[in-house]
Amino acid sequence: MTVFSELLIIGVSLGSVYALIALGFVIIFKSTEVVNFAHASLLLAGGYAAVQAREHMPFWLALLAGVVAAALLGVALEFLVIRRYRGRDHSVLAIVTIGLDIVLLTELARQIGPDIFSYRDPWGSRLIELGSLTIPQTRVAALITAAALIGIFLLAFRFTSWGVSMRAAAEHRETAALMGIRLGWVSASAWAVAGALAAVAALFLSVFPTTGLDRDTGLVALKAFPAAIIGGLDSTTGALVGGLVVGITEAMATGYQNDLSFLGSGIGELAPYLVMVLVLLARPAGLFGTRELSRV
Amino acid sequence: MSEPLTKTGNPPPSAPAAPPSAAPSGGPAPAGSGRGRLHRRLRRLLPAAGALILLALPFYAEAFWLRAGLFAMAAAIGAIGLNLLTGSTGQLSLGHSFFLAVGAYGYCLFAGDPDGTTTGWGLPPLLAMVLAVALAGVAGGLFSPIAGRLRGAYLGIATLALIFIGQHVLFNAKDLTGGFNGRPVPVLEFLGLSFDNEKTLVAGVPFTAVEKLWYLGLVLLAAGALFAVGVLKSRPGRAMNAIRDHRIAAGVMGIPVARYRGAVFVLSSMYAGLAGVLLALVFQRTVPGYFGISLALTYLAMIVIGGLGSVGGAVLGAAFVTLIPQILTRYSESLPLISAPGTGGVAPGEASELLYGAAVVAAVLFLPGGLVRLPLVLRMRRQARRRTKTS
Which of these, A15, B214, B283, B366, could form a disulfide with A244 (CB 3.0-4.6 Å)? Predict the structure, then answer.
């Protein structure tokens, strides 16, 4: 039971980090209808900027630098590339983001090389004892930070004028534009928010118990794709639920690996994708996604 | 989400199917018709000359280039299949390398002899090849409940699952796949022909495996390309394009959308399986690390660079994407801006990735029909310039 509770907490914490990434992914999809396969490189860029900045400044400032850098990169991508393709077929646009991802990841991997960078974060490898449970501090910090960020985002999405214009644009682009909403701003801000969230996620993906930020950290962002799909690509609630599902599945499958050894080693990596396939078989639009209805 | 009916304002410009004859200016110039006739005759001769060069190449080119060419041919077969799915039907797939792996390992399994560590059925290699392609088709068919119901980029993410499942199986099912170190590929033999490294003298030139496989590759590629052209030009092809351009209209006209999507997915996985078999024969050893996500992205890059929805485009794109790294590696000393791996500069592998990643982005923006449309675009531009000069 102790093991189960520990795994559950770790899973929820991991899941909240995935939810951060998936949320950015969903925001971009809602506001620009682009499935952004370059999300992995946004995440890695934010992380890399932060660990580089960490050489010269205290932890929190460095984290902020990473967040700003990733947000700027997101805006730059939107402004320099995605905006030029407006009106094109969406699956072609998705391929364009794949091209971007190839370029960015190659360049970042070249910069990072074989090194592993540490954030030298304030939590280190310390553990928290809660009754009989032992949990790394970083996991608790991840959970609190992610919950706070997601809360702030959802409130902003609901109550600020930025959130209203975002939702209006997602509802009906042309009408929103006619009502005076600047679609360019909406989509640029979506990319900025997505980049910022990804940079925070990069921090929690590379602190203890992970060794640090390396060239493959971006690959972890791939797990946010099943998270977004499980929840439904156009639903923010779905991104949260999907993130949690993926996190808990992964933590459980990794934790009980020995009991699942007949499935081979490394089943934890695979489990989120299997869950995604199962969900898609039952509900092709995801758990919370809008079912497509077309009137003819 | 409000769906396509509201989007009638912008017909998908990605559709490369716009009839090239639509431009009346593309016809032979009225003045200087002698030159026009010569031009036309040259154009008819060009494919024949190309075929002749391809047939003669093993007698002259060294093994390195033949091997590179074989990779390009295998990639071209896979890319044709992916283009049927992505270019013509508008369904994104990031799982193509999974089906390549099914083909490659399926061939090894069916044709290989059991050697204590890995199982093998020891079937005749040609039969094994056919079975491997069929196996890839079955794998695609198993995924078709999802492939039929999802569209576009959704399917792209869903197919990511295939890659991870594939990698997991390849590393863990050791008696089938040989695990991390992979397994050797049995030599292809049929009708007394053996595609092994035994030197056979043909017209005074020693033929080893690469030279022999070259002809096999040509035959397979030609067959695959012809079949794809046939599919695209007939009823199914039109139905596929209709699904891509307007799913609902296609459904209203009586096209079973889900069944078509599933069927195209199966067909494209069979192409991938065939490409996998050919790749395995060239590599002579299959390793799991090769069939990862970056391979699948490479195939997408090929069809976008070459031209979405066209068979020629897939072949061109495959040649471009597979030959570039080979050329860069080969001539890395004499090329500027490129240095040997590990020296801090841009290594040839990285340079080629940067190049084709950027080419994908640029192709969609500046050359929506891909490389295959380049001559047409250039000709139209030249004619436009001539017209402005005369008027």
Answer: A15
